[in-house]
């Protein structure tokens, strides 16, 4: 059955083709807005609290008023997922400073614009990709100095992702001027060192504080896997025991090649697999589903 997609736009649920925002919306003209991507599993929104914490923070940093309370946002989020018949997939939430006559300073009167959409994702495809692992291509990080804000201004990320795809890689790893990996174009970056410890860059203005990153940190602690927050170079990553990326829609995705250099034996490593299983178990809990077996988790 084909379900016509529905978007929530400033108080109304509309068929996608009728969903419109004013051409003077500051999100459109200045990228003056922020967003969140939340995974939907078993029809439920997952990791809602950390996503809302980050949304609140992004809005606060840009001095945009929250469009509604967290609880009200959750009601709309569930309704958007339901109306789009999304059992497994993603919810997109965007808040901009609103519509106002084009001028750089903040307008006095604009009401923030709130848009939500949802679409299905076949998580079995994601799971199959995780079995093989992905290739990444490194590229200079040319983004601005506030990458900790989840702003809709994603042009450098879009260009990097496309350049990586053109090179036959699935993700781009962005590299700072000193040769250290900041993060992926839409993921956080990790390696496993020779001692079996997880290494990922500490949080500061150069990277997005990933919700998946946060969850993986907690799960690693529970599993007794040490985590070190420090920058790592491209050279170190190429020689690492394992590497992976993390995001809301990719979960934990093993990296098996960096710029053509094969990582270890070219297959996802044991620490990555263990952590991915823990993550899938966490997601099943969030979805109110029974904890999966290893075999079931692989098809989540
Ligand atoms: N880094 C960047 C630049 C991103 O765009 C994203 C997600 O879109 C992430 C990291 C991962 O964040 P999360 O785990 O919250 O999805």
Topology:
Layout: E1 6-9, E2 12-15, H1 26-30, E3 33-41, E4 44-45, H2 48-62, H3 70-83, E5 89-96, E6 113-120, H4 123-132, E7 134-140, H5 155-166, E8 171-175, E9 181-184, E10 188-192, E11 198-200, H6 211-223, E12 227-229, H7 234-238, E13 242-247, E14 251-258, E15 261-262, H8 270-286, H9 294-297
Parallel strand pairs: 7-8, 7-14, 11-12
Antiparallel strand pairs: 1-2, 1-6, 3-4, 3-5, 5-6, 8-9, 10-11, 10-13, 13-14, 14-15
Helix pairs in contact: 6-8
Question: Can you put this structure into words, describing what you see?
Answer:
With 300 residues, this protein is of the alpha+beta class. It has helices spanning 26-30, 48-62, 70-83, 123-132, 155-166, 211-223, 234-238, 270-286, 294-297; strands spanning 6-9, 12-15, 33-41, 44-45, 89-96, 113-120, 134-140, 171-175, 181-184, 188-192, 198-200, 227-229, 242-247, 251-258, 261-262. It is globular and about 55 Å long. Pyridoxal-5'-phosphate is lined by residues 37, 157, 183, 186-188, 208, 210-213, 246-248. Pyridoxal-5'-phosphate binds at residues 37, 157, 183, 186-188, 208, 210-213, 246-248.
